[in-house]
Amino acid sequence: MTVSARALAAGHGGRPRGPAAIRRPAAADAGLIFLIVLTTATAAAPLLGRYDPTAMNKNAVLALPSWLHLLGTDQFGRDILSRVLYGGRIALAVGIGATAIAALCGVPLGLWTGFRGGVADAAVMRAVDTLLAIPAVLLAMALVAAIGPGSVNAGVAIAIVGLPQFARIARAGVLTQRRMEYVEASVASGARDARIVFRTILPNILSPVFVQIPIGVARAILLEASLSFLGLGTQPPQASWGLMISESREYLYAAPWYGIVPGAAIALTVLALNHVADRARRWWRTERS
To answer: Of 12, 71, 74, 90, which has the fewest beta carbons less than 10 angstroms from its beta carbon?
Structure first.
């Protein structure tokens, strides 16, 4: 067999398809490695951060990075490394928590309305479309303004903002699957609607939902940072990446590292989550081909 024939047999560009194409170890995924390191570092924040993130030191205001303060200090003498680590805790907690709530509420909503159809489906989907038509930041700001600022309230608002995406994905999957023969067989056997929806259809539409989860977490982290930047999320003196960027604006030239560090943390986390989502999407498409 010639080289070109082997390439055609292996797939596009000579790369193997199927399970062999996704047999790379997870350790080779830079995005996944970064997320593991970030999660571990934030969990070990009391050990890695040698200072209380809210403790002030007037003798070390805007100190340069040094052995005592590896990433320097802010305008109150607070250790930036400690604040970045504890701010990462809030970012991950809000991102994962809000996305989990959005998925747990949005997926069943999309499943049920898509399966039932009719007036209920039309009414719920128009409400979902209304939420999708409003820019995410504006909707989150309006919700936080209504219920009050804070990390928890910001997480609730972000969960509401993320719910329509999961509802839409679940509904699209139901509309595709409910005409399949295995669903018709379940209906013919007299299975209840709830069993058909959650035991028969749901396992077959979970792949796109799982792909959406890292994207939802990345979006939630960005929204939490945006709300904190605007003063509607995490409140001082607690640490938050968005709040740190907001406070660093007045010291952009005197202490550029103050804003660069939390900004880099947000950018790298979002890029890593998007990379994981892309890997999951490619894996799903390979499995279906």
So the answer is: 12
